[in-house]
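HUMAN:
Could you generate one sequence with tokenized structure?
ASSISTANT:
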Amino acid sequence: MKKISILFFMCILIAYSANVFGTSTEQPELLCQSAVLIDANTGIVLYEKNADEVQYPASTTKVMTALLLLEKIKTDAGFIPAVTDDPLSSPSFDVKIYFSQEAVGSIEVGSSNIAMNPDETLTARDALYAIMLPSANEVSAAIAEYVSGSLEDFAALMTERAKELGCTDTNFKNAHGLPDDEHYTTAHDLARIFEEAVKHPEFIEAISTVSYQIAPTEKQPENRNIANSNKLIKQGEFYLDYIVGGKTGYTDAARHTLVVLGEKDGKKLICALLHGEKNEPYKDAETLMEYGFSFPYVQKEPFSADFKTNIIIEGISVSAVPSEKVSFLVPEQTTMEVFANWDANATLPVDAGDSVGVLTISSNGQYLGTVGLLAAESVAAPVVEDLSEQEAEFVFAENTENVTAEKNKKSPVVVITLIVTGLLVAGIIAAYFFRSKLKELLFPKKREYPLRR
């Protein structure tokens, strides 16, 4: 079969309940003003508290900054994937990010930074670590200029990307999260952005790193040693071994903010916490993660054992079946959708077992996986009879005569229309002559005599 190109879509809804609230243990009591807990694989909300209430994100803003940096580098022509276990070892992350006077001078004095100077450069790799570990604000500004050319254009891009991800109450005015009345988000929106970011292994690598060393630059002859500000991944009072990583934030207006990813027993959870006091986000993160990991999860199959679908090849219906059984570990009450995608350019014949497409499984708009789609039966190509030249000429002549006869036929409607039109014309002509004769009878012309002299 030809290479599959996904051109047609058929959605088959598998009947499960979508509401997952209230099916676990007692609802947790939290300290932060806004919070949300979602299953990272399906996007299903397991818990929320004022999750759509607008709040200031502080440095959790940098999750979007990191996402846009990664998307730019990985979509640029010539991107080279890493060949080691470290996804950031790719030479594409050696690209230099330049620090302008505006990038360095645009941040508040005393705010988080790594003391970069104008006309200095960092590799994209070092810049990613600098914004995700010590939360360097001037590095965020330099990334903004690298990606979009200006701080303003990058902020607009951030907001646009947030909308693409389904965020409904998010607006960005800068790349770092320093105070601005028009710079805001919600716990739910922040979780959506983080959910997209953790799809990149480079992002996971950065947020899970406890410490990192930035090599000397043009302006700095010494190494810069930086440390992660997230207490959940560092040995100490708030350390949790199932936390993969995350991003912290703080400003006087936003208070303490946090978004993290946890993974345990095959379950992957994301929690976002906004507007808490000191250490409250860490406490709430543990409370939410423990709640989420105790949530009823089951292995679910997206389709039954006798599942079949039909696809159309050259106008003929072909029955197709999944190539294998699959299941996914999901919250107990999960809705899964199956999309059958097949090749519009496929041709007959096909044999039973031939690959004819793929089934894509998703939940709540989140991709879960794919499985092959195979022909359930053999289907022959349509039979086209060969005609001799004499037979072909006879068929052509017969068809021509039939077409001519059809053209010569007059429908009753046409005939009636012609008769009525003729009668109307004749009537008009008759009326004209009758009117003229009647006038002569009623008003005869006076006879004129010549004058006699």
Notes: The longest helix spans residues 412-442. The two ends are 118 Å apart (CA to CA). Confidence is low (pLDDT under 50) at residues 1-24, 399-407, 446-453.
